[in-house]
Amino acid sequence: MSTATVWARRYGALIRNAWLVDLQYRAAILLWVLWGVTEPAIALGIWWAIAGAGDVAGYGRADFARYFFAVMLVNQLTIAWDSWYLDRWIREGELNFRLARPLHPAHEATADNIAYKARSGTILLVVWLVTAAIWPAVRLPLDPARWALTALAVLLAAGLRFLISFTTGLLAFWTTRATAIMELHAGIAMFLAGRIAPLALLPPPIAHLATVLWFRPMLAFPVEVLTGAVTSTPELLSGFAAQVIWLALWLAACRLAWRRGLARYGAVGG
Amino acid sequence: MPAAISAHSLSKTFRVKVRDPGLSGAVRALVRPRYREVQAVREVSFDIAPGEIVAFLGPNGAGKTTTLKMLAGLLYPTSGSVQVVGFEPWTGGSAFKRRIALVLGNRQQLVWDLPAEETFLLNRAIYDIAEPDFRERLAELVDLLRLGPVVDKPVRQLSLGERMKCELAAALLHRPPILFLDEPTLGLDVSAQDAIRRFLSGYRDRHGATILLTSHYMQDVTALASRVIMINRGRLLYDGALEALVARIAPTKRLELVLGSPVSAESLATFGAVHSYRFPHAVFDVPREAAATTSARLLAALPVADLSIADPPIEEVIRLAFAEAPEPE
């Protein structure tokens, strides 16, 4: 059997299992989807009220509506929970059997991400389409080029957030506070990645910091591509370049943490 | 025939952070961490031939699991060398992992919320098992482990024994020649323990697998393993046949008598060391070589209704073996 077929079967089996587990927790999924809708809805509510008095930095009410609906969708398509899983695998010894089988644990994590994103992304896309049908403000132009660019930006952002989460989870090899570090990162990202306000509304030095670091590439940039805030070629190129560079850097960090972590695991037991 | 598993001067030292109790201790550990070296395994060497079943015995913390993890490639030895079916475990990669099964009694690979058959299907894909092989092996495992009624129930609804059987099935679908089993019967009831033992010995006979298992239960050893490796405080205490160990550690045989009528304790003592006496049961511990003659004398002189000769219980032998071991410096 060809290598590609073997991998297709492995991923197929992993994704299938992830979905079967999901079906056991239907209520939990509903709660997660609600959570995914609530945060951008609250942010939108606040900005909607503020923008009632006139545009804020060029953003009118309809712009905010489009922005936060895009945040809702892109966030669900790029979010990664791997630090929680890795932390548990490492601390509770569940990594052992994973290390003893001929499949790198990162593949299981990747398959889980695909399964999760396909499921929540589909649900939220439906939510959006239904909303767009009755509320024209959140409608987006059906321009194939823009959707293709958005898909690429979302894919890179998903890869980046996966690596950040996976690498942070690997810190469990050294500390029992890996998930706390991830929480801290999530807190910072709330502001710097554009979850509670478009980056254009942040004070310029902070917006600059978000652009120089990996925060804009991990969420705000794909949202801006989708909403049409970024359209010029130089802006697109620099945005994608930042995504690729941070992806490569986090990949390097992840590999280093994995190698060092395993050596340490081997040195202290588990 | 080359050894299936070969360990030479295997040692493992862990560096453990030392922390004094209380808040001040925690702060001090943060500012100036102190470490202590713990020698989990010291200079352990052994060879295991293909098809052997070897039991690894030792009290908690003896270094059994650490050794097992080194053999399975999860831990790097501090020094020494290991070869398992021709591979160095921690550099063997996928090719090595396809040849071993590692079952840790307290950590399961079965997906908790799904029926065990889903994990079987997952392993079929992970180990790239051809469909006809998969069906044949699964049918064999389901039959031998009597899994028919349980494979389609969610794992969380299974009893501990059913779960361990499913765990073994999941671990053996790729038909590995080497099995590392850490406490495979831990916490199981007697009949489940027995079923697992019968299965393991049948599996070895059928497929020539080499099995190394750790256990607390003497029954695992007496029923399964032709050979025991005893380790305590990381050192190898004994490596060989169980019978030879018993002969060395326990140079006595146990004579158990059922008396037809009461006899005074003093007159019993003239025949040898009385282990216990409570009419009608009398138990003697006599030197091995004197067992036959002492039995004859007892039968001639006392109103004996029944008499049996046995080795002392294996638990006692093991306890004696560990007690006899020199303290490490």
The CATH homologous superfamily of the largest domain in chain B: P-loop containing nucleotide triphosphate hydrolases
Number of domains of chain A: 1
Biggest sheet layout of chain A: none
Strand portion of chain A:
under 5%
Q: What is the residue-averaged pLDDT of chain A?
A: 91
Query: Which structural class best describes the helix and strand composition of chain B?
Result: alpha/beta
User: Mean pLDDT of chain B, nearest integer?
Assistant: 88
- Contiguous runs where pLDDT drops below 50 for at least 5 residues of chain B: none
Helix count from the secondary structure assignment of chain A: 11
**Judging by the overall fold, what is the CATH architecture of the largest domain in chain B?**
3-Layer(aba) Sandwich
Structural account:
The complex is a heterodimer of chains A (270) and B (329). By secondary structure, chain A is an all-alpha fold. Chain A has one domain. Chain A has eleven helices and no strands. The radius of gyration of chain A is 20 Å and the shape is globular. The radius of gyration of chain B is 24 Å and the shape is globular. With 329 residues, chain B is of the alpha/beta class. Chain B starts with a strand and ends in a 5-residue tail after the last helix. In chain B, 37% of the residues lie in helices and 29% in strands. In chain B, a hairpin with a 2-residue loop joins strand 8 and strand 9 (235-241). The A-B interface holds A 1, 6, 9-10, 12-14, 16-17, 20-21, 24-25, 92-94, 96-103, 263, 265-270 and B 14-16, 40, 66, 69, 72-76, 90, 93-94, 97-98, 100-102, 104, 106-109, 111, 113-114, 118-119, 121-128, 154.
